[in-house]
Amino acid sequence: MFRFMRDQGAIAYVHAGAVYLNLTNRCPVACRFCVKRAWRWDFRGRDLKLGREEPSAAEAWDAARGRLEETASRELVFCGYGECTYRLDAVLGVSRRARRCAPDLRLRLNTIGLGSLLWERDIVPELADALDAVSVSLNTADPAQWIRLHAPRRRYAAAGFRAVLDFTAACVLHGLETTVTAVDQPGVDLEAVERLAASLGARFRPRPPL
Questions:
Q1: What is the pLDDT of residues 126-173, one digit of tens each?
Q2: For the domain that residue 175 is a member of, what is the CATH number?
Q3: Is 125 contained in some domain?
Q4: Taking Cα atoms as reference points, which of 128, 135, 132 lies closest to residue 178?
Q5: pTM value?
């Protein structure tokens, strides 16, 4: 029973042909280009504001499975209005259920890339056992600009940019399909981000502003 939120749409929603899972609203950054506050936690008609409790892995998989059956989508993406690696156990738990029930389903994580820094250990081997792909929202090749764009919590500011690069390189090393993304915005050198992504062994994808 989802008594802590209006409906399962707060957990699982459909975007660009894939099913997305919103596991948490917690985030270690306050990106200046994030629309969640300007849009008042709405995402194209979906209210992604979670209640005080966050969905368990079983609840999240039930919500995702319903969306997958409705849409016949073949991709499940861990991405919402928060950083899903805060919910590492839930990501791994949902992935295990997905592998059992839908072995051909593609599993992807969209992340700011600070998961290993948050957990103070390398979480990439666990992710590599569970997922097919990771998309890292880097947005700049400049460490100082990274801080300005992402406004990380103070504890993550000094080490954050380097941690994202290390996380990305580790994802590549462990065989995950790894893509670095950057939102096209004033002052950002997209070509520099693309070169940095290539140096890490990752693909690059520019993103338009929402």
A1: 999 999 999 999 999 999 999 999 999 999 999 999 999 999 999 999
A2: 3.20.20.70
A3: yes
A4: 135
A5: 0.92
